[in-house]
Amino acid sequence: MKARRYLPVVLSPALLAAASIPGSPAQAQATGESPQNVLAAQIRLQGFACDKSLGAVQDRKRSKPDHPVWVLKCSNATYRVSRFPDMAAKVEPLR
Question: Which contacts (CB < 8 Å, 24+ apart) does range 19-24 have?
């Protein structure tokens, strides 16, 4: 039986950023998407209406490590989106 050879993996900053929490600014930049589009797509998958995403701002007061909180403004509503790793986002309509 032949022994398998494994090559060492070198993680670049771009790969590390892409592996971060989905929807974070680092991941959005690494994939070429804006955070507002990533958040809008996620809340649409969860059944919320967001016709056109107009902007997303991270709520630094409510955010914690591994738990970013965003305020997403859509053309038809505004939402507070709390994100946890490997879980659905908690979405609160604001207006």
Answer: 21/66, 21/68, 21/83, 21/85, 22/83, 23/68, 23/70, 23/81, 23/83, 23/89, 24/68
